[in-house]
Amino acid sequence: MTTDASVTAARRPGEQALTALGLGAPALDPADASAHSFPGGGKWRTEIPSCEGPEALAVVLKESSRLDVPIHRISQGSGVWMLTDAEITEMVEATGERDIELCLFTGPRGTWDIGGSVRSDSRGAGLRARGHNAVAGCVEDAIRATELGVKCLLVADEGVLWTLHRAREAGIIPADTTLKVSALIGPVNPASYSVFEHLGADSVNVPSDLTLDHLTEIRRVSGAPLDMYIEAPDDLGGYIRMYEVAELIRRGAPVYLKFGLSKAPGIYPWGTHLRDVTLNTAKERVRRGRLALDLLARHGADGDMAPLGSRLPGALNRFPVGDSA
Length: 325
Hints:
globular; alpha/beta
């Protein structure tokens, strides 16, 4: 990785050639840049999503070593309930050996519930937890996962987020557990982003169709880490923003660069019947990460990566917990 000084001198794609042709872009506005960073230094971390079990994890770790792709976090989408205790323990141990944060999704979710509204054109409440029992299931998943050593939980419901934050404050789950908001309920404006931070989010996955100006607006109200697919799955739009990655860092820091995969079959909820596609896509996600990192290096914008092994978000703003229900 290059030094911080090289980041300030980073070039934009095609800049030199276009300038020579009289087609140069206006200078970047320093006021657009994020003033925030991760605790301990660094503007960006990396995440490999959709790593659905120990076998897929082994593929990701092997490929990341082969391609020299640094990884801060590995996340899973099917849910804690789709893994046995032995599988979770194996994943905890494998990521722990590499000092990588493991994030597992809590469930149940509305899209896998019996409610008909999620099948309607409006999609109803989407992934949110329907009723008390669904919230209870998410809490059960959280307690089980953290007891097995998982330190990051993925949530798709504001009430579940607030409940798990309260559980963290009360010592029901470990105080250093981090809570990550799913892209499927991700906020699209600075006011809602700030609400997620106050509810207990330690990182927030925004939809990948937000503009650069939207990211700047968010950063003017919140320093909570932002997660963003550099390449989004098709069910999240299939957006590919690889040539914007340097500007996404400049505007959105601190940011997790998520290396998703478009034009790939859905694999949630995962099972061995989806083994081949799960392993193949896991491997390709790491390769996509290598492509993005190579692009950053070519543009002289690959500096300021957060230290490997760092995972905590720093001081964030929270609503008072008190005795609220």
